[in-house]
Amino acid sequence: MSIAPGILFEVVGFPITNTIVTTLLTDIVLIVLVICISKTISLRPKGIQNAIEMAIDYFYTLTEDTAGKKVSFIYPWVLTFFLFIVISNLLAQFPGFESIRFHPVNYSGEEGVPLFRAATSDLNVTLALATISVIATNYLGIKHIGIKSYLSKFVSFKMFPIFMFVGILEFANELTKFISFSFRLLGNIFAGESMLSQMYHLFPIGVPLPFIALELMVAVIQALVFAMLTMAFMHIMTDKPQH
Amino acid sequence: MEILDSFGLESSLFLFQVINFLVILAILTKFLYKPLRNMMDERKRRIEQSLRDADEAKSALENAGMERKQILASAKKDADEMTALNKRQLSVEKEKLTQEAKEHSQQIIEEAKEKAVVELENVSKQAGLISVDLSGKIIAKVFSNLFTEEDKQKILSRALDKIAKGGYEKDSN
Protein backbone atom coordinates (compact mmCIF):
# COMPACT_ATOMS: atom_id res chain seq x y z
CA MET A 1 0.00 0.00 0.00
CA SER A 2 1.54 3.25 -1.17
CA ILE A 3 1.45 6.30 1.09
CA ALA A 4 0.82 8.51 -1.93
CA PRO A 5 -2.83 8.72 -3.00
CA GLY A 6 -3.80 6.71 -6.07
CA ILE A 7 -4.67 8.75 -9.14
CA LEU A 8 -7.90 7.46 -10.67
CA PHE A 9 -8.11 9.78 -13.68
CA GLU A 10 -7.46 13.36 -14.69
CA VAL A 11 -9.86 16.19 -15.47
CA VAL A 12 -8.29 18.98 -17.51
CA GLY A 13 -4.89 18.07 -16.15
CA PHE A 14 -6.19 17.98 -12.55
CA PRO A 15 -5.55 14.57 -10.95
CA ILE A 16 -8.60 12.99 -9.32
CA THR A 17 -7.22 10.78 -6.55
CA ASN A 18 -9.02 8.24 -4.37
CA THR A 19 -8.61 10.64 -1.40
CA ILE A 20 -10.34 13.39 -3.38
CA VAL A 21 -13.25 11.00 -3.95
CA THR A 22 -13.43 10.40 -0.20
CA THR A 23 -13.09 14.12 0.49
CA LEU A 24 -16.06 14.75 -1.80
CA LEU A 25 -17.97 11.96 -0.04
CA THR A 26 -17.21 13.66 3.27
CA ASP A 27 -18.46 16.95 1.81
CA ILE A 28 -21.65 15.24 0.62
CA VAL A 29 -22.25 13.75 4.09
CA LEU A 30 -21.75 17.16 5.71
CA ILE A 31 -23.96 18.97 3.19
CA VAL A 32 -26.71 16.34 3.54
CA LEU A 33 -26.44 16.83 7.29
CA VAL A 34 -26.83 20.59 6.87
CA ILE A 35 -29.85 20.13 4.56
CA CYS A 36 -31.48 17.63 6.98
CA ILE A 37 -30.94 19.96 9.93
CA SER A 38 -32.16 23.02 7.99
CA LYS A 39 -35.37 21.23 7.05
CA THR A 40 -36.15 19.73 10.44
CA ILE A 41 -34.73 22.37 12.80
CA SER A 42 -37.13 23.05 15.67
CA LEU A 43 -37.19 24.20 19.28
CA ARG A 44 -37.96 20.63 20.29
CA PRO A 45 -34.99 18.73 18.83
CA LYS A 46 -35.34 15.19 17.56
CA GLY A 47 -33.26 12.70 15.61
CA ILE A 48 -30.03 13.97 14.10
CA GLN A 49 -30.59 17.50 15.49
CA ASN A 50 -30.03 16.09 18.99
CA ALA A 51 -26.65 14.64 18.01
CA ILE A 52 -25.45 17.77 16.22
CA GLU A 53 -26.68 20.03 19.02
CA MET A 54 -24.83 17.84 21.50
CA ALA A 55 -21.59 18.18 19.47
CA ILE A 56 -22.04 21.93 19.06
CA ASP A 57 -22.84 22.40 22.74
CA TYR A 58 -19.88 20.21 23.81
CA PHE A 59 -17.37 22.14 21.69
CA TYR A 60 -18.93 25.49 22.51
CA THR A 61 -18.77 24.83 26.26
CA LEU A 62 -15.27 23.37 26.03
CA THR A 63 -14.02 26.36 24.03
CA GLU A 64 -15.80 28.76 26.38
CA ASP A 65 -14.15 27.11 29.40
CA THR A 66 -10.75 27.42 27.73
CA ALA A 67 -10.92 30.66 25.77
CA GLY A 68 -13.68 32.57 27.56
CA LYS A 69 -15.12 35.44 25.51
CA LYS A 70 -13.23 34.40 22.36
CA VAL A 71 -15.48 31.35 22.03
CA SER A 72 -17.67 32.77 19.25
CA PHE A 73 -14.87 32.99 16.68
CA ILE A 74 -12.83 29.96 17.79
CA TYR A 75 -15.48 27.26 18.05
CA PRO A 76 -16.62 27.22 14.38
CA TRP A 77 -13.03 26.40 13.35
CA VAL A 78 -12.62 23.77 16.04
CA LEU A 79 -15.96 22.11 15.34
CA THR A 80 -15.45 22.10 11.56
CA PHE A 81 -12.04 20.48 11.96
CA PHE A 82 -13.58 17.86 14.21
CA LEU A 83 -16.58 17.11 11.98
CA PHE A 84 -14.57 17.01 8.77
CA ILE A 85 -11.84 14.76 10.17
CA VAL A 86 -14.13 12.45 12.16
CA ILE A 87 -16.52 11.89 9.23
CA SER A 88 -13.61 11.34 6.87
CA ASN A 89 -12.00 8.88 9.30
CA LEU A 90 -15.24 7.01 10.02
CA LEU A 91 -16.10 6.71 6.34
CA ALA A 92 -12.84 4.80 5.91
CA GLN A 93 -14.19 2.05 8.21
CA PHE A 94 -17.02 1.23 5.80
CA PRO A 95 -16.74 -1.92 3.71
CA GLY A 96 -15.44 -1.19 0.24
CA PHE A 97 -12.60 1.08 1.29
CA GLU A 98 -9.37 -0.43 -0.02
CA SER A 99 -11.24 -3.47 -1.31
CA ILE A 100 -13.03 -1.89 -4.32
CA ARG A 101 -10.36 -1.47 -6.95
CA PHE A 102 -10.20 0.82 -9.91
CA HIS A 103 -8.06 0.30 -12.98
CA PRO A 104 -6.99 3.67 -14.36
CA VAL A 105 -6.08 4.14 -17.98
CA ASN A 106 -2.43 3.31 -18.62
CA TYR A 107 -2.24 1.46 -15.28
CA SER A 108 0.33 -1.32 -15.44
CA GLY A 109 -0.34 -3.20 -12.13
CA GLU A 110 -2.74 -6.11 -11.62
CA GLU A 111 -4.53 -5.16 -8.39
CA GLY A 112 -5.56 -1.69 -9.51
CA VAL A 113 -5.95 1.42 -7.33
CA PRO A 114 -8.40 1.52 -4.39
CA LEU A 115 -11.45 3.57 -5.42
CA PHE A 116 -11.91 4.88 -1.87
CA ARG A 117 -9.22 5.69 0.65
CA ALA A 118 -9.35 7.61 3.94
CA ALA A 119 -8.95 11.29 3.06
CA THR A 120 -6.78 11.88 6.09
CA SER A 121 -4.30 9.22 4.97
CA ASP A 122 -3.19 11.69 2.28
CA LEU A 123 -0.54 14.28 3.17
CA ASN A 124 -2.23 16.78 0.83
CA VAL A 125 -5.30 16.70 3.08
CA THR A 126 -3.56 16.71 6.44
CA LEU A 127 -1.08 19.39 5.39
CA ALA A 128 -3.94 21.50 4.03
CA LEU A 129 -5.78 21.16 7.34
CA ALA A 130 -2.58 21.95 9.28
CA THR A 131 -1.89 24.99 7.11
CA ILE A 132 -5.43 26.30 7.57
CA SER A 133 -5.20 25.72 11.32
CA VAL A 134 -1.85 27.53 11.68
CA ILE A 135 -2.76 30.42 9.36
CA ALA A 136 -6.18 30.88 11.00
CA THR A 137 -4.54 30.80 14.43
CA ASN A 138 -2.03 33.49 13.47
CA TYR A 139 -4.68 35.56 11.67
CA LEU A 140 -6.91 35.52 14.77
CA GLY A 141 -3.86 36.40 16.86
CA ILE A 142 -3.14 39.49 14.74
CA LYS A 143 -6.83 40.42 14.66
CA HIS A 144 -7.31 40.25 18.41
CA ILE A 145 -4.07 41.44 19.95
CA GLY A 146 -2.80 43.67 17.16
CA ILE A 147 0.19 43.32 14.85
CA LYS A 148 2.57 44.91 17.40
CA SER A 149 1.75 42.51 20.21
CA TYR A 150 1.69 39.62 17.74
CA LEU A 151 5.18 40.42 16.43
CA SER A 152 6.50 40.91 19.96
CA LYS A 153 5.89 37.18 20.49
CA PHE A 154 8.64 36.47 17.93
CA VAL A 155 10.85 39.54 18.07
CA SER A 156 11.66 41.01 21.49
CA PHE A 157 14.75 42.74 22.80
CA LYS A 158 13.66 42.77 26.43
CA MET A 159 16.18 41.13 28.79
CA PHE A 160 18.44 40.71 25.77
CA PRO A 161 19.22 38.05 24.59
CA ILE A 162 16.80 35.81 26.53
CA PHE A 163 13.53 36.88 24.87
CA MET A 164 15.21 37.03 21.49
CA PHE A 165 15.88 33.30 21.76
CA VAL A 166 12.39 32.78 23.14
CA GLY A 167 11.09 34.53 20.01
CA ILE A 168 13.15 32.26 17.78
CA LEU A 169 11.77 29.23 19.64
CA GLU A 170 8.23 30.57 19.23
CA PHE A 171 8.82 30.95 15.49
CA ALA A 172 10.23 27.42 15.26
CA ASN A 173 7.22 26.24 17.23
CA GLU A 174 4.89 27.77 14.63
CA LEU A 175 6.76 26.00 11.85
CA THR A 176 6.73 22.65 13.62
CA LYS A 177 2.94 22.93 13.98
CA PHE A 178 2.66 22.24 10.26
CA ILE A 179 4.62 19.03 10.68
CA SER A 180 3.09 17.90 13.98
CA PHE A 181 -0.51 18.53 12.87
CA SER A 182 -0.16 16.95 9.44
CA PHE A 183 2.05 13.95 10.22
CA ARG A 184 0.30 12.98 13.46
CA LEU A 185 -3.03 12.65 11.68
CA LEU A 186 -1.53 11.13 8.54
CA GLY A 187 0.55 8.61 10.52
CA ASN A 188 -2.31 7.42 12.72
CA ILE A 189 -4.86 7.02 9.95
CA PHE A 190 -2.48 5.62 7.35
CA ALA A 191 -1.06 3.15 9.85
CA GLY A 192 -4.52 2.01 10.88
CA GLU A 193 -5.65 1.65 7.31
CA SER A 194 -2.54 -0.33 6.37
CA MET A 195 -2.93 -2.56 9.39
CA LEU A 196 -6.59 -3.26 8.62
CA SER A 197 -5.73 -3.89 4.98
CA GLN A 198 -3.16 -6.50 5.99
CA MET A 199 -5.62 -7.98 8.49
CA TYR A 200 -8.28 -8.38 5.79
CA HIS A 201 -5.72 -10.11 3.62
CA LEU A 202 -4.55 -12.49 6.34
CA PHE A 203 -7.73 -13.14 8.36
CA PRO A 204 -10.77 -11.83 6.48
CA ILE A 205 -13.35 -13.00 9.08
CA GLY A 206 -13.49 -12.32 12.83
CA VAL A 207 -9.96 -11.31 13.62
CA PRO A 208 -10.15 -7.76 12.18
CA LEU A 209 -13.14 -6.89 14.44
CA PRO A 210 -11.11 -5.71 17.50
CA PHE A 211 -8.89 -3.73 15.15
CA ILE A 212 -11.93 -2.12 13.56
CA ALA A 213 -13.08 -1.12 17.06
CA LEU A 214 -9.59 0.25 17.72
CA GLU A 215 -9.67 2.19 14.44
CA LEU A 216 -13.07 3.64 15.30
CA MET A 217 -11.57 4.95 18.55
CA VAL A 218 -8.50 6.27 16.73
CA ALA A 219 -10.76 8.00 14.19
CA VAL A 220 -12.59 9.92 16.92
CA ILE A 221 -9.52 10.52 19.10
CA GLN A 222 -7.41 11.92 16.24
CA ALA A 223 -10.21 14.25 15.17
CA LEU A 224 -10.57 15.37 18.78
CA VAL A 225 -6.80 15.88 19.17
CA PHE A 226 -6.61 18.00 16.03
CA ALA A 227 -9.60 20.11 17.10
CA MET A 228 -8.38 20.50 20.70
CA LEU A 229 -4.88 21.51 19.68
CA THR A 230 -6.28 24.07 17.25
CA MET A 231 -8.47 25.45 20.03
CA ALA A 232 -5.55 25.62 22.48
CA PHE A 233 -3.26 27.29 19.95
CA MET A 234 -5.95 29.80 18.97
CA HIS A 235 -6.52 30.65 22.62
CA ILE A 236 -2.79 31.05 23.28
CA MET A 237 -2.22 33.11 20.15
CA THR A 238 -5.11 35.48 20.93
CA ASP A 239 -3.70 36.19 24.41
CA LYS A 240 -1.38 39.16 24.77
CA PRO A 241 2.28 38.17 25.44
CA GLN A 242 3.34 38.52 29.08
CA HIS A 243 6.82 39.83 28.31
CA MET B 1 11.76 17.08 -2.20
CA GLU B 2 11.92 13.40 -3.06
CA ILE B 3 10.40 12.60 0.31
CA LEU B 4 7.51 14.97 -0.40
CA ASP B 5 7.05 13.39 -3.82
CA SER B 6 6.92 9.95 -2.23
CA PHE B 7 4.07 11.25 -0.03
CA GLY B 8 2.27 12.28 -3.19
CA LEU B 9 2.30 15.97 -2.26
CA GLU B 10 1.06 18.10 -5.15
CA SER B 11 0.31 21.80 -5.10
CA SER B 12 -2.97 21.40 -7.03
CA LEU B 13 -4.26 18.70 -4.66
CA PHE B 14 -3.10 20.72 -1.67
CA LEU B 15 -4.89 23.87 -2.94
CA PHE B 16 -8.02 21.86 -3.71
CA GLN B 17 -8.10 20.56 -0.14
CA VAL B 18 -7.56 24.06 1.31
CA ILE B 19 -10.36 25.55 -0.78
CA ASN B 20 -12.62 22.57 -0.10
CA PHE B 21 -12.18 22.90 3.66
CA LEU B 22 -12.76 26.67 3.63
CA VAL B 23 -15.95 26.20 1.60
CA ILE B 24 -17.16 23.52 4.02
CA LEU B 25 -16.29 25.80 6.95
CA ALA B 26 -18.32 28.65 5.42
CA ILE B 27 -21.30 26.38 4.69
CA LEU B 28 -21.30 24.82 8.15
CA THR B 29 -20.88 28.17 9.90
CA LYS B 30 -23.67 29.84 7.97
CA PHE B 31 -26.19 27.02 7.63
CA LEU B 32 -25.49 24.76 10.61
CA TYR B 33 -23.75 26.41 13.54
CA LYS B 34 -25.49 29.79 13.47
CA PRO B 35 -29.08 28.51 13.11
CA LEU B 36 -28.50 25.80 15.71
CA ARG B 37 -26.78 28.18 18.14
CA ASN B 38 -29.62 30.67 17.70
CA MET B 39 -32.12 27.87 18.26
CA MET B 40 -30.28 26.66 21.36
CA ASP B 41 -30.01 30.21 22.71
CA GLU B 42 -33.72 30.77 22.04
CA ARG B 43 -34.55 27.47 23.77
CA LYS B 44 -32.35 28.41 26.71
CA ARG B 45 -33.99 31.83 26.87
CA ARG B 46 -37.47 30.30 26.77
CA ILE B 47 -36.62 27.74 29.43
CA GLU B 48 -35.20 30.46 31.66
CA GLN B 49 -38.25 32.62 30.94
CA SER B 50 -40.55 29.68 31.76
CA LEU B 51 -38.70 29.04 35.01
CA ARG B 52 -38.91 32.73 35.90
CA ASP B 53 -42.62 32.75 35.01
CA ALA B 54 -43.18 29.65 37.13
CA ASP B 55 -41.37 31.27 40.07
CA GLU B 56 -43.33 34.47 39.59
CA ALA B 57 -46.60 32.52 39.34
CA LYS B 58 -45.71 30.64 42.51
CA SER B 59 -44.89 33.80 44.42
CA ALA B 60 -47.98 35.51 42.95
CA LEU B 61 -50.08 32.58 44.16
CA GLU B 62 -48.53 32.81 47.60
CA ASN B 63 -49.07 36.58 47.61
CA ALA B 64 -52.65 36.09 46.44
CA GLY B 65 -53.22 33.64 49.31
CA MET B 66 -51.78 36.08 51.82
CA GLU B 67 -53.69 38.95 50.24
CA ARG B 68 -56.87 36.88 50.39
CA LYS B 69 -56.31 36.24 54.08
CA GLN B 70 -55.59 39.93 54.67
CA ILE B 71 -58.68 40.96 52.70
CA LEU B 72 -60.83 38.48 54.61
CA ALA B 73 -59.39 39.66 57.93
CA SER B 74 -59.91 43.27 56.93
CA ALA B 75 -63.47 42.56 55.75
CA LYS B 76 -64.22 40.74 58.99
CA LYS B 77 -62.81 43.62 60.98
CA ASP B 78 -64.85 46.13 58.95
CA ALA B 79 -67.98 44.01 59.34
CA ASP B 80 -67.43 43.77 63.12
CA GLU B 81 -66.87 47.51 63.36
CA MET B 82 -69.95 48.16 61.23
CA THR B 83 -72.05 45.79 63.32
CA ALA B 84 -70.88 47.45 66.53
CA LEU B 85 -71.56 50.88 65.08
CA ASN B 86 -75.02 49.80 63.93
CA LYS B 87 -75.76 48.37 67.35
CA ARG B 88 -74.72 51.60 69.00
CA GLN B 89 -76.75 53.68 66.52
CA LEU B 90 -79.72 51.38 66.96
CA SER B 91 -79.50 51.67 70.70
CA VAL B 92 -79.30 55.46 70.52
CA GLU B 93 -82.19 55.56 68.04
CA LYS B 94 -84.23 53.23 70.24
CA GLU B 95 -83.67 55.40 73.30
CA LYS B 96 -84.49 58.51 71.32
CA LEU B 97 -87.72 56.99 69.95
CA THR B 98 -88.70 55.68 73.37
CA GLN B 99 -88.10 59.10 74.87
CA GLU B 100 -90.10 60.77 72.12
CA ALA B 101 -92.94 58.28 72.57
CA LYS B 102 -92.93 58.86 76.30
CA GLU B 103 -92.96 62.61 75.84
CA HIS B 104 -95.70 62.33 73.24
CA SER B 105 -97.84 60.10 75.44
CA GLN B 106 -97.23 62.39 78.43
CA GLN B 107 -98.31 65.32 76.31
CA ILE B 108 -101.44 63.45 75.19
CA ILE B 109 -102.24 62.60 78.81
CA GLU B 110 -101.75 66.21 79.89
CA GLU B 111 -103.95 67.46 77.11
CA ALA B 112 -106.58 64.85 77.96
CA LYS B 113 -106.45 65.88 81.59
CA GLU B 114 -106.84 69.54 80.72
CA LYS B 115 -109.72 68.72 78.41
CA ALA B 116 -111.33 66.59 81.13
CA VAL B 117 -111.03 69.44 83.66
CA VAL B 118 -112.50 71.93 81.23
CA GLU B 119 -115.27 69.49 80.34
CA LEU B 120 -115.96 68.85 84.01
CA GLU B 121 -116.22 72.56 84.68
CA ASN B 122 -118.59 72.98 81.76
CA VAL B 123 -120.68 70.07 82.92
CA SER B 124 -120.73 71.48 86.48
CA LYS B 125 -121.81 74.87 85.21
CA GLN B 126 -124.52 73.38 83.03
CA ALA B 127 -125.68 71.16 85.89
CA GLY B 128 -125.78 74.20 88.16
CA LEU B 129 -127.81 76.15 85.63
CA ILE B 130 -130.16 73.20 85.13
CA SER B 131 -130.57 72.77 88.88
CA VAL B 132 -131.18 76.52 89.34
CA ASP B 133 -133.69 76.46 86.57
CA LEU B 134 -135.30 73.34 87.97
CA SER B 135 -135.27 74.74 91.54
CA GLY B 136 -136.83 77.92 90.31
CA LYS B 137 -139.53 76.02 88.60
CA ILE B 138 -140.17 73.79 91.63
CA ILE B 139 -140.18 76.72 94.00
CA ALA B 140 -142.38 78.62 91.64
CA LYS B 141 -144.75 75.70 91.46
CA VAL B 142 -144.75 75.09 95.29
CA PHE B 143 -144.95 78.67 96.39
CA SER B 144 -147.23 79.95 93.68
CA ASN B 145 -150.19 79.41 95.81
CA LEU B 146 -148.72 80.50 99.21
CA PHE B 147 -147.25 83.82 98.38
CA THR B 148 -148.27 86.83 96.57
CA GLU B 149 -146.66 87.73 93.40
CA GLU B 150 -144.57 90.33 95.20
CA ASP B 151 -143.42 87.87 97.89
CA LYS B 152 -142.61 85.36 95.32
CA GLN B 153 -140.42 87.78 93.53
CA LYS B 154 -138.61 88.73 96.74
CA ILE B 155 -138.06 85.16 97.84
CA LEU B 156 -136.96 84.16 94.38
CA SER B 157 -134.61 87.06 94.22
CA ARG B 158 -133.06 86.15 97.57
CA ALA B 159 -132.77 82.55 96.59
CA LEU B 160 -131.14 83.45 93.35
CA ASP B 161 -128.73 85.74 95.12
CA LYS B 162 -127.78 82.94 97.51
CA ILE B 163 -127.29 80.53 94.71
CA ALA B 164 -125.24 83.09 92.91
CA LYS B 165 -123.03 83.59 95.99
CA GLY B 166 -122.81 79.84 96.64
CA GLY B 167 -124.67 80.04 99.84
CA TYR B 168 -127.17 77.64 98.58
CA GLU B 169 -124.68 74.89 98.29
CA LYS B 170 -123.28 75.57 101.78
CA ASP B 171 -126.75 75.54 103.21
CA SER B 172 -127.61 72.32 101.50
CA ASN B 173 -124.37 70.74 102.82
What does this entry look like structurally?
Chain A has helices spanning 18-40, 48-67, 71-91, 123-152, 162-202, 208-237, and strands at residues 7-11, 14-17, 101-102, 113-114. Chain A has one domain (7-237). The termini of chain A are far apart. In chain A, strand 1 and strand 2 form a beta hairpin. The relative contact order of chain A is 0.15. Chain A is mainly α. Chain A is built from six helices and four strands, in the order ββαααββααα. Chain A has a two-stranded antiparallel sheet with strand order 1-2. In chain A, strands 3-4 form a two-stranded antiparallel ribbon. The model of chain A has no long low-confidence stretch (mean pLDDT 89). The radius of gyration of chain B is 64 Å and the shape is rod-shaped. Chain B has helices at residues 2-6, 11-143, 149-165, 167-172. Chain B has 173 residues and is an all-alpha fold. Chain B is 93% helix and 0% strand. In chain B, helix 2 (11-143) runs antiparallel to helix 3 (149-165). Chain A binds chain B through residues 2-5, 14-15, 17, 20, 23, 27, 30-31, 33-34, 37-38, 41-43, 49, 52-53, 56-57, 60, 75-77, 79-80, 83-84, 122-125, 127-129, 131-132, and chain B through 4, 6-10, 12-14, 16-18, 20-22, 24-25, 27-29, 31-33, 35-37, 39-40, 42-43, 46.
- In whole angstroms, the N-to-C terminal distance of chain B is 180 Å
Spell the H/E element sequence of chain A.
EEHHHEEHHH
User: What structural category do the secondary elements of chain A indicate?
Assistant: mainly alpha
Mean pLDDT of chain A, rounded to whole units? 89
Keywords:
heterodimer; A: 243 residues; mainly alpha; two-stranded antiparallel ribbon; 68% helix; 5% strand; B: 173 residues; 4 helices; 0% strand; rod-shaped
Quick recap:
The complex is a heterodimer of chains A (243) and B (173). Chain A is mainly alpha-helical and 243 residues long.
